[in-house]
Here is the input.
Amino acid sequence: MSVDKAELCGSLLTWLQTFHVPSSCASPQDLSSGLAIAYVLNQIDPSWFNEAWLQGISEDPGPNWKLKVSNLKMVLRSLVEYSQDVLAHPVSEEHLPDVSLIGEFSDPAELGKLLQLVLGCAISCEKKQEHIQRIMTLEESVQHVVMEAIQELMTKDTPDSLSPETYGNFDSQSRRYYFLSEEAEEGDELQQRCLDLERQLMLLSEEKQSLAQENAVLRERVGRPEGEGTPGLTAKKLLLLQSQLEQLQEENFRLESGREDERLRCAELEREVAELQHRNQALTSLAQEAQALKDEMDELRQSSERAGQLEATLNSCQRRLGELRELRRQVRQLEERNAGHAERTRQLEDELRRAGSLRAQLEAQRRQVQELQGQRQEEAMKAEKWLFEYRNLEEKYESVTKEKERLLAERDSLREANEELRCAQLQPRGLTQAEPSLDPTSPPMDNLAAEILPAELRETLLRLQLENKRLCRQEAADRERQEELQRHLEEANRARHGLETQHRLNQQQLSELWAQVEDLQKALQEQGGKTEDVSSVLLKRKLEEHLQKLHEADLELQRKREYIEELEPPTDSSTARRIEELQHNLQKKDADLRAMEERYRRYVDKARMVMQTMEPKQRPAAGGPPELCSLRTQLRERDVRIRHLEMDFEKSRSQREQEEKLLISAWYNMGMALQQRAGEERAPAHAQSFLAQQRLATNARRGPLGRLASLNLRPTDKH
Here is the structure.
């Protein structure tokens, strides 16, 4: 039987770790230096492998494999000498390892051979019992490998070097410890262990017979004379055989005592098996009783669950019975209420029949009211138109009066200027009369001053006449431009008054609609209501009329705005930007108005859908009158529509007022900017003449334009 050296190396590494040496023994690389093996040998036999021998081993060879090989050679040589001299077991050649492979490559196979020799020394020394006990503490797989290694040493040694007596004690003890390492817990395990013990007894008896035969052979060999051998050698062999015989006798006695112990142990185990069987039977009966009790408990549990379910069913039946009583009471109340509703329905039907006769009269009166409202609106429009014309004529009269005053003032100023010019012309004449040499009939070279003075006056008069003509043309152009702006302003005011009139009429119409709605509410409250079709058609017609009027007002405002834009004169960049912003705001407001109209339609559709969905819910379940439900639905729908119309009209009115204010402010700002620019253009940059100053002073007395011109010319007066 051959053992795998690599597997043997791993198991023996595990065995070496039980010695707790200073060096590590976890891998073949740790043992390649030989230091750990030397420490193990020192613990196996300190007298042979002493401290002096340990000092000869290199402690830290490092990566130098030659030092490792040297240490391993010393260890191997000491092992061989110890086996031959102390244990008298010479080592065969096949058991000797190659230390160079161990030191250089850490070969597991060669290392396994070396550790196998160390194992042989451990189980053959004086402390072999201690080492055998240490082996028994290892795992079963490691124990099997160690036992196979020991048997390999026993079979491959020579008969003279190794005897069965040396390892017989270890083999018997190892088997006994192996089969008795675990205690029995169950009856089957105890029986199996008894069979194992009987098999072991048979093996021990066979081994005893083989030892007895070998003992007989040795005795015959001792009794047989040997002529070839010397007396000393014979005596030596005799002593050796006697010692072996004594050992065998001791071993036989020990085996006999062990057999008796095993028999006693077997008897005890048999008694334990009987007790366990008896206990097993008792436990089986108890288990059967427990199973019966468990079945009974299950039946009782099911019965209790069924009883709980029946109690819950009983409680639910009682609760349903109470609910049934409550439902019967509610049915009686509903029947009484239904009877009251039926009576109320009959009364409402009577009132509805009475109100039917009044409906035609109401429609005729409504048509008359609409015709009168149309006539009143036309008369109001005419009155507003005549009022606007009266205001325009009044403004024109005021402007003509102011123009007359301005012309009178200008006439006075021209008279004063004419008188001054006459005075200036009379002064040279006085000079000519005082000095005869200055007479115009005299020769021209007699007096130089008399010739220069009339020339300057003539030049001044010509310059004043030219400037007067230019100013007259400029004033005529400014007057035409002002008249055009005034005409545009009148048209814008006329459009604004028309929009205000339309807005006022819309407000009056809305108030009339509110009055009609209130009258309808009162009539419905007095008469008991109308049918759904008549009220819904009336409300739809009024809503459509209101939306149509809003749309017409929007179109009229758009036309007036376009007309005003056409009449607007060209303005500067800032005014143009302002007008563009206002136009953008107006477009935004128009879009808001269109979105508002779309919301009106959506609200009407949504209200109709809500009315249709709520109508079946409002109808009584016991067959109540449908007319009452329809009247209530109509009232709710009408209130919702009235609230929506009121909110939307308030929004549209505020938006229109804001638009009108923005339009008027933009128009006035544009007029003021144009007037200011015209005044700046008329104001001369150089020193003015006396006539121009007088005219500017006259314009300053007329109004804001004159004041602006006088403010512009005031710094020049100082020059």
Summary: The radius of gyration is 71 Å. Residues 157-185, 431-453, 617-624, 700-719 have pLDDT under 50 and may be disordered. DSSP finds 18 helices and no strands in the chain.
